[in-house]
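[#protein-structures] MJ: dropping DUF1576 domain-containing protein here for a structure pass
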Amino acid sequence: MAAPKLLRKNSPQRATKEPYTFPEIPQKTREQFLYLTVLFTFVTGFFFNGPLEILEGLYRIHTSTSILLSDYMEIGNIGSAFVNSALLMLLSVIMAKKSKTTVGGPLIAAVFTIGGFAFFGKNLYNSLPIMGGVLLHATFRKEPFGKFILPAFFGTALGPLVSQISFGYSWPLTYSIPLGIAAGVLAGFILPPLASQFIRFHQGYNLYNIGFTCGIVGMLSMSLLRGFALENDRTSVLLSEGNFGLTVYLSVLFLGMILFGLIHDRGYQRGLSHLLKRPGQLVSDFVASDGFSVTLLNMGLLGFLSMGYLLAAGGSINGPIIGGIFTVVGFGAFGKHVKNVLPIMAGIYLANLIFQWEVSAIGSLLAALFATTLAPIAGAYGILPGILAGFLHMAVVMNVGSLHGGMNLYNNGFSGGFVAAILVPVLDSLNISKHTWEEDE
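AK: finished. structure tokens for DUF1576 domain-containing protein:
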């Protein structure tokens, strides 16, 4: 930083702009936000279905194969999908508290991602073995579980591996269930070291790093199963009818986030301006760098932006769509903001206009939401590279699912890793200027 200029004697001192300081929100308040989200989600379920219906739906959810795309709102019912989401989020929050993990951007992203995918692919049965495998890895390394909590939470993307082996191959349950659990534990055990290495592959420009890692593990698992002539049926089970109540739930949740941010940070305009200058490359903890209040404001805005894209594209809300929206919103605390996701969405939309896929098709809608894993490319290199990233992602994501047979729920994270690994070196070689963020003084 340059040395300050000396003022002439008796010269009026120029007015300086005071640096922005965000209000500190206590850890307890952050935890309460997560608990309130869990409670709101849990209670919402009972507006759709009665207790007995929810229990029956939860049974169907937990005994399904959960292969992409398995909409739990259709397999079980809407109420049971909400309760399943609330239970998984509650488990995550409790585990984080027990391991003394700070409620910051990474944890918020993980909890919302788990809650979102609990609408289509994750449940207690297929998630616990993977978390247990990560815990076993931490025990073997003689290190605290909190150090590996993100691989444990995000690694539940491999939940279908557990469910498919347990229920998908018509084996006797006395054999298939232990095998499915063992496969989940083994997958969880190897995830932490792989995730720490694969981040170098895409240089942090793919926010779903564990998704890419899970894609590799899922691909290996599927290759071994195919060696025994075992194959997964392509699944596309979706909620048959839209429900206005789902829109109300999301709107209330996101409006609450925005109001919290506006009320608790009177300088939210400067705070949000700061946040929107962040490229978003891993690791970008917005709670630590910009404050909890402005981060929630950003999350709420991303929620409404995602719903707006869905409405403009002519889509309807179902389990996978809620999963996509929740993931975008969660990563609003960990790398995504309105400014760096818009070019990615624009690239997806452009690809659908040019290629064979319909803008309103479920695959295209999910790509528009989950492709925002590449938001750091737009944040770091600019709008046009961001549009190009989204455009390429659309082509790649429609072709990589067969590699892991639907075993990896984060198919877009798998695709995003390849797109970032290809595109970023090319942009660097062309001397595309990177965005640099500087504190206002």
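MJ: nice. Residues 244-429 form one domain.
AK: one more thing. The two ends are 11 Å apart (CA to CA).
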